[in-house]
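Sample entry (117 residues):
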Amino acid sequence: MTTQEAAPIAVPSGQPVTLLETIWNEPGPAGLTFRFRFLAPEIGFGGSVDYDTAYADIVALCESYVLPRLNGTEPAPAQVIVSLSDRPLPFGAADPEVTQFFEAFSISDGHCIWEAF
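Predicted structure, serialized as tokens:
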């Protein structure tokens, strides 16, 4: 597991997204799963980024941030989950005051392929 990076990561919405943590030691439903958890403060209640815009950010994060970090990973993960949260929240915790969006992807031919949860 790795933890928070302070440098903002460029996303289509322009919101200041930062990495909270990467988790690869928790099993997923599809086998080996890597989770990339990001802080995205503008998705929260009253924020300026709606789900459709956040989805574009998630796809961009998978393609431009996640894929380069998986290059050469053995064994390759069966699934990658990219999540956005408007506030830090421990992995697996729920809080009705925190907005979170999750999307799952498989990796094929160097691209993130959306997988229905």
